[in-house]
Specification:
CATH class: Alpha Beta
Shape: globular
Largest sheet: 7 strands, mixed
Number of strands: 9
CATH topology: Rossmann fold
Oligomer: single chain
CATH superfamily: Vaccinia Virus protein VP39
Number of domains: 1
Distance between the termini: 37 Å
CATH architecture: 3-Layer(aba) Sandwich
Radius of gyration: 16 Å
Strand order of the largest sheet: 3-2-1-4-5-9-8
Helix content: 25-40%
Length: 208
């Protein structure tokens, strides 16, 4: 996989598949919304959705009145689709086209949300880079919410291998800079009616 072009792969996915045909399609991102609601954030809290693509989370966050929402995705096509869907309110969000391992944040976030992006990083260097970026980008006492395929979930998605995680594995990766708050598993039913088991973990950034 050393010659694998991650950006080209995802641009092709979003060029060829409609929104309701991708396995991660969620018309209402209930798990993510519940997490964010429970934080009782101020409406100007800085929230970033990693690998948000054309998911509907940004729609709900804007509807809830949040004014500092960013969406990052490697695919320019995915971002374009989301902007088209939102129409004349698309300007209320910040849109970032970037590979997460190359992302240089210009602000520090109160909430870092990642549903199903992190598990696509299978190279240890990329994983280390991701950890480094979260540590730099999340403000002290900020929140990290991450969802990956569990050890009972798929081993591949969108034609490429992923990295499965348990609660223990995720916690071990982040525990030097973050305090674990909660972990749980969720079954996600895809548009093709298959079931994918996810593990979600929430963390709070330590001071410093």
């Amino acid at each position: 996989m050393s010659d694998f072009n991650r950006k080209k792969h995802w641009e092709n996915i979003y060029e060829t598949k409609p929104i309701d045909a991708v396995s991660w399609y969620q018309p209402i991102p209930e798990t993510s919304l519940e997490f964010i609601r429970n934080l009782n954030l101020k409406k100007d809290a800085a929230i970033i959705d990693i690998g948000g693509g054309d998911s509907f989370l940004v729609d709900y966050l804007l509807e809830m009145g949040f004014t500092n929402v960013s969406v990052l995705d490697i695919s320019e096509k995915a971002i374009h689709r989301a902007k088209e869907r939102l129409g004349n309110i698309a300007h209320k969000a910040k849109w970032i086209v970037s590979d997460i391992t190359q992302f240089v944040s210009t602000e520090r976030y109160d909430v870092w949300h990642d549903r199903a992006a992190f598990h696509f990083l299978t190279d240890e260097k990329d994983i280390s880079k991701y950890l480094e970026i979260t540590e730099k980008s999340i403000r002290p006492k900020g929140n990290l919410f991450i969802g990956t395929f569990s050890e009972n979930g798929p081993t591949k998605c969108s034609g490429i291998e992923i990295k499965q995680y348990s609660e223990e594995k995720i916690t071990r990766l982040f525990d030097s800079k973050f305090e674990k708050l909660n972990c749980f598993t969720v079954d996600h039913k895809t548009p093709s009616q298959s079931v994918q088991n996810f593990v979600f973990c929430s963390f709070r950034k330590l001071n410093g």
